[in-house]
Amino acid sequence: MDPKALKWTTLERSHYLYGVIYEALRLTYGVSARNPRIAREEDVVYQKGSYSYVIPNGTPIRMSSVLQHHDEEVFPDSYKYKPERWLDAACERNHELEKYLFTFSRGTRQC
């Protein structure tokens, strides 16, 4: 196929291209410093497995995109470039995984 014949409307429907872009974003960390967040009005409940922790409101919490993007429970073989991890079993976009993408921060401070 002639590369010049590709149209943007065709490319944007490519689920694999979506995987390539999201995997590239995951491995290029953007802001790698730990970004502080403070829950001002309510306590934060952190749950991991059978453990549950309560972090009192007003306590600074910090996290970096590097730690998030190399969480082996979320991204197995996290140091490998695998665009297919962003696709589900039917080769459709895996929107569930997007909530773990932290390249340009999250929430009100997102770029």
Provide a quick synopsis of the model.
Pfam families: p450. This protein has 111 residues and is an alpha+beta fold.
Topology (SSEs and partners):
Elements: H1 8-11, H2 15-27, E1 35-38, E2 44-48, E3 51-55, E4 60-63, H3 65-69, H4 95-98
Antiparallel strand pairs: 1-4, 2-3
Strand-and-helix sequence, N→C?
A: HHEEEEHH
Radius of gyration, taken over Cα atoms and rounded to an integer in Å: 18 Å
Looking across the biggest beta sheet, what order are the strands in?
Answer: 1-4
Largest sheet: 2 strands, antiparallel
**Anisotropy-based shape:** elongated
Q: What structural category arises from helix and sheet content?
A: alpha+beta
Low-confidence stretches: none
- Straight-line distance between termini: 37 Å
Beta-strand portion reads 15-25%
Tally of DSSP β-strands? 4
What is the percent of helical residues?
Answer: 10-25%
- Overall mean pLDDT score? 84
Total helical elements = 4
Tell me about this structure.
The protein is of the alpha+beta class. The chain has a domain at 8-34 and 62-109. Helices cover 23% and strands 16% of the residues. The strands form 2 sheets. It has a two-stranded antiparallel sheet. A two-stranded antiparallel ribbon has the order 2-3. The longest helix is centred in the N-terminal third of the chain and has 13 residues, at 15-27. It is elongated and about 60 Å long. It comes from Apiospora rasikravindrae.
